[in-house]
């Protein structure tokens, strides 16, 4: 989902950059305040871990393979704030060293994969953890949060591409969302398996006081031989800091996605022209008013994708519960 | 004259309850070079981490460890770490800066020296370890032997009076080992070297201490200790080949 | 629609085996590109200047309207000149440029359904290609620590800089460990069933994190041992 340069126009790049700067700034402040000194190198190592883990290829079918993106896994282990910092670091290095993702598109990539993927994903994870306690809850949570954040990030990406006029919204939304609904399943499942592997080695990294892994108590020589009693219920969601990431993600969704989902394009056009956006850009951004898109059934496709997304959410949650039961035998609880 | 290192009845327990050190007592005089021997899991690394206050995590003022006459308490940690140079087992853990000169300069920078002095110390340290002109090299590109030498340079740049080394020659090829031993021989500081390399112990260290199951089981001149085959075998070591052809003169 | 979906799947870089080679290739070549000793005028230019020029080129290329062809031609000439002067192998540059193609292909396929926008994919491809070439040239002629120093001067927060520096330093170490673990795991996985392989690979990922966090503790100790506060 790394958007290269040239696919986003100036205004989209600027808006995403502003949102991302705000989000990363918030995350850095939170991390600086809450992270104990001995965990500072862990941020860098977690970033290297994320990068390295992304190179492990999981065979899917007929020569294709998938891999972990990992924002939600890091959020589960270190908390949403740290996850945002870690994902941002990885994206910056990928952009400048590997030219993977554009320089001006960095804002968009950080927003999609960092703030939505890591931040919002982390918040979702905590919500579900608070709802379903114990390691099974963690598994369900990471499957669900992984899927949702992947799909949501892809929808934001589609919105950004459409807003820039590069790809019309119906095509962008349908293609990105449908593909990432599949990819999201892989992401959720792989994250869950990795989480369980870590739990078997170091249970205290997954289950700790505030029910979400905000701090990794990887104390030297601390090998707890039996897992703590059943995990805690956690107070996820009451932390106002995390809500700020959620709000930021919601703001982005509102900017990039709502105009297209909004059934009143003319009203929107009026607002946009008042704000000074070019008419040309508005036309590109509001596909219902653009009659030259002649692919038959395109609006049907958009609707179908949206419906698939809604039912997919429930289905994936069910999958998460199922995996929790399957992968966590009684004695591990 | 106070000892360089004085450890009195040191005890330490891991978080899961296992006892790592069960009452270690030892003494190293200034200028000595002492080998710390023992099988894996005997507590050598744990002991070394106590010598500059990295363990226990909350320093307790019970005075079990004294370095250069000073007990290790929170107030003088800074001072202790200035005087004790610790070389870790895995050079990758210690070489955390992107370039060699930045890494060697890390210690002097923390000491608050000015730029000219830092530059001089870096140059000097790199020359002492035989890597002049390596300043600009990227750390992740170095060979294992070079990494170990840069780590040593980084420690020497702080000009410590006591040098504590954890397995300095493990993973080195024979030439690397020879060169590193030659380097160590030239350093005048007090040295405590935890090692499995029994030949190094024989060649460099006048005294040896054997640690097993968290206790000191032997302490004496290196040659006598290592020549005592039953003692060596009992504690997971062996009589080194270098002594097999030793003539008693 | 299926083609567009596939193209977008390719664009997201996850469905083609080609993209597996992409990441490994990129990693090896990018981390080893400083053989230390290429002395070209481009290598010698100060990093801040190179970055500023690169940013200028990228911003211009993205925002200048397509009918100002002169800009794009000019940029292409400058980049070609820089590529020649820097003595980077043109084959290397071409290979890196090709890795952009999935995304461009995706957009092209999708826009193929829109007759009014037939030519627009060419615009996108040219803009993208020029920006990509700029970044490739800068990153291959500038040592990473210099890039970090420029970022520090730009008042990027210290915590972020430290994290980036540590990522760069330990990336190869972790990739090495991951590769060794993967080989060890798979050599003890005798079934071709996908579930077992996934389990093995997920364990590698999990173990990698545990080892990374243990190493982070040791790095903290090493920093404190040399006086860090």
Describe the protein in words.
- The complex is a heterotrimer of chains A (333), B (249) and C (229).
- Chain A is an all-alpha fold and 333 residues long.
- Chain A has a single domain, classed as Arp2/3 complex 21 kDa subunit ARPC3.
- In chain A, 68% of the residues lie in helices and 1% in strands.
- Chain A is built from 13 helices and 2 strands; from the N terminus they run ααββααααααααααα.
- In chain A, helix 5 runs antiparallel to helix 6 and helix 6 runs antiparallel to helix 7.
- The longest helix of chain A has 33 residues.
- Chain A is globular.
- Chain A starts with 9 loop residues before the first helix and ends in a 6-residue tail after the last helix.
- About 14% of the residues of chain A have low confidence.
- With 249 residues, chain B is of the alpha/beta class.
- Chain B has one domain: 3-Layer(aba) Sandwich (Rossmann fold), CATH 3.40.50.300.
- Chain B contains 10 helices and 10 strands.
- In chain B, the strands form 2 sheets. A 6-stranded mixed beta sheet of chain B has the order 6-7-8-3-9-10, with helices on both faces. Chain B has a 4-stranded antiparallel beta sheet with strand order 2-1-4-5, covered by helices on one side.
- In chain B, helix 4 crosses helix 5 and helix 5 packs across helix 6.
- Chain B is globular.
- The mean pLDDT of chain B is 88.
- With 229 residues, chain C is mainly α.
- Chain C has 2 domains: 142 residues, no CATH class; 69 residues, no CATH class.
- Chain C contains 11 helices and no strands.
- The longest helix of chain C has 32 residues.
- The N terminus of chain C is likely disordered.
- The interface between A and C is large, with 96 and 94 residues.
Compact overview of the structure:
Chain A is 68% helix and 1% strand. With 333 residues, chain A is mostly helical. In chain A, a hairpin with a 5-residue loop joins strand 1 (58-59) and strand 2 (65-66).
What is the number of helices of chain C?
Answer: 11
Structural class of chain B: alpha/beta
Main β-sheet of chain B: number of strands, strand sense, barrel status? 6 strands, mixed
First CA to last CA of chain C: what distance? 58 Å
Quaternary organisation: heterotrimer
CATH class of chain B: Alpha Beta
Head-to-tail CA distance between termini of chain B: 33 Å
Which band does the percent of strand residues of chain C land in?
under 5%
Q: Let me know the average pLDDT of chain B.
A: 88
User: Which range does the strand content of chain B fall in?
Assistant: 15-25%
Which sheet architecture does the biggest sheet of chain C show?
none
- The number of strands of chain B is 10
Rg estimate of chain C, integer Å:
22 Å
Tally of separate helices of chain B: 10
What's the CATH H-level superfamily name of chain B?
P-loop containing nucleotide triphosphate hydrolases
Fill in the CATH topology of chain B: Rossmann fold
């Amino acid at each position: 989902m790394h958007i290269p340069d040239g696919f986003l126009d100036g205004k989209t790049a600027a808006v995403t950059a502003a949102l991302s700067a705000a989000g990363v700034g918030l995350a850095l402040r939170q991390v600086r305040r809450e992270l104990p000194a001995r965990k500072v190198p862990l941020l860098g190592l977690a970033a290297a871990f994320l990068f390295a883990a992304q190179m492990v290829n999981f065979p899917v079918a007929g020569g294709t393979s998938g891999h972990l993106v990992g924002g939600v896994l890091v959020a589960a282990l270190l908390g949403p704030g740290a996850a945002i910092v870690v994902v941002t670091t990885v994206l910056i290095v990928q952009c400048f060293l590997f030219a993977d993702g554009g320089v001006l598109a960095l804002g968009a990539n950080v927003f999609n994969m960092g703030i939505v993927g890591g931040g919002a994903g982390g918040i979702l994870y905590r919500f579900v953890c608070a709802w379903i306690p114990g390691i099974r809850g963690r598994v369900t949570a990471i499957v669900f949060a992984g899927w949702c954040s992947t799909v949501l990030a892809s929808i934001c990406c589609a919105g950004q591409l459409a807003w820039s006029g590069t790809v019309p919204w119906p095509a962008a939304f349908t293609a990105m969302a449908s593909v990432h609904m599949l990819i999201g399943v892989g992401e959720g499942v792989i994250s869950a398996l990795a989480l369980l592997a870590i739990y078997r080695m170091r249970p205290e990294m997954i289950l700790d006081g505030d029910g979400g892994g905000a701090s990794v108590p990887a104390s030297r020589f601390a090998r707890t031989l039996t897992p703590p009693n059943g995990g805690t219920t956690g107070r996820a969601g009451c932390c106002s800091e995390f809500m700020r990431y959620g709000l930021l993600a919601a703001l982005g969704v509102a900017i990039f996605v709502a105009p297209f989902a909004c059934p009143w394009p003319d009203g929107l056009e009026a607002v946009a022209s008042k704000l000074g956006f070019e008419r040309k850009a508005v036309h590109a951004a509001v596909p219902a008013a653009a009659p030259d898109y002649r692919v038959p059934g395109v609006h049907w496709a958009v609707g179908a994708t949206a419906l698939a997304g809604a039912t997919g959410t429930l289905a994936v949650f069910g999958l998460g519960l199922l995996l929790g039961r399957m992968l966590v035998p009684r004695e591990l609880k | 004259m106070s000892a360089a290192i004085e450890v009195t009845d040191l005890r330490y327990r891991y978080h899961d309850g296992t006892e790592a050190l069960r009452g270690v007592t030892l003494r190293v005089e200034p200028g000595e070079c002492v080998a710390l021997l023992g099988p894996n899991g005997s507590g050598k690394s744990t002991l070394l981490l106590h010598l500059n206050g990295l363990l226990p995590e909350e320093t307790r003022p019970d005075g079990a460890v004294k370095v250069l006459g000073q007990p290790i308490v929170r107030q003088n940690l800074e001072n202790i770490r200035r005087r004790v140079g610790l070389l870790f087992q895995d050079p990758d853990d210690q070489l955390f800066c992107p370039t060699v000169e930045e890494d060697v300069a890390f210690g002097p920078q923390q000491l608050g020296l000015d730029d000219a002095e830092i530059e001089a110390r870096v140059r000097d340290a790199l020359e002492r370890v035989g890597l002049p002109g390596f300043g600009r090299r990227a750390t992740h590109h170095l060979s294992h032997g070079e990494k170990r030498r840069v780590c040593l340079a980084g420690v020497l740049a702080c000009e410590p009076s006591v040098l504590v080394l954890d397995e300095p020659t493990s993973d080195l090829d024979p030439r690397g080992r020879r060169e590193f031993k030659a380097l160590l021989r030239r350093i005048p500081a007090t040295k405590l070297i935890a090692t499995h390399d029994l030949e190094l112990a024989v060649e460099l260290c006048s005294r040896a201490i054997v640690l097993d199951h968290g206790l000191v089981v032997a302490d004496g001149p290196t040659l006598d200790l290592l020549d005592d085959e039953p003692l060596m075998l009992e504690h997971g070591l062996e009589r080194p080949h270098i002594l097999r052809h030793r003539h008693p003169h | 629609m299926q083609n567009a979906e596939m193209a977008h799947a390719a664009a997201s870089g996850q469905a083609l085996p080609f993209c597996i080679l992409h990441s490994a290739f990129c990693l090896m070549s990018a981390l080893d590109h400083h053989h230390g000793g290429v002395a070209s005028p481009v290598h010698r230019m100060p990093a801040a200047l190179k970055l500023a020029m690169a940013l200028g080129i990228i911003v211009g290329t993205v925002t200048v309207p397509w009918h100002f062809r002169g800009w794009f031609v000019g940029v292409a000439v400058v980049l070609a000149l820089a590529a020649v002067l820097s003595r980077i192998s043109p084959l290397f540059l071409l290979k890196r440029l090709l890795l952009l193609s999935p995304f461009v292909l995706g957009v092209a396929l999708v826009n193929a359904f829109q007759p009014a926008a037939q030519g627009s994919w060419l615009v996108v491809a040219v803009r993208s290609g020029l920006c990509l070439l700029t970044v490739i040239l800068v990153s291959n002629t500038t040592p990473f620590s210099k890039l970090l120093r420029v970022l520090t001067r730009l008042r990027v927060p210290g915590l972020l800089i430290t994290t980036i520096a540590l990522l760069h330093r330990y990336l190869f170490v972790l990739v090495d460990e991951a590769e060794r673990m993967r080989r060890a795991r798979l050599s003890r996985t005798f079934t071709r069933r996908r579930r077992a392989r996934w389990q093995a690979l997920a364990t590698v990922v999990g173990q990698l994190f545990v080892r990374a966090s243990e190493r982070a503790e040791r790095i903290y100790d090493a920093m404190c041992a040399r006086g860090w506060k």
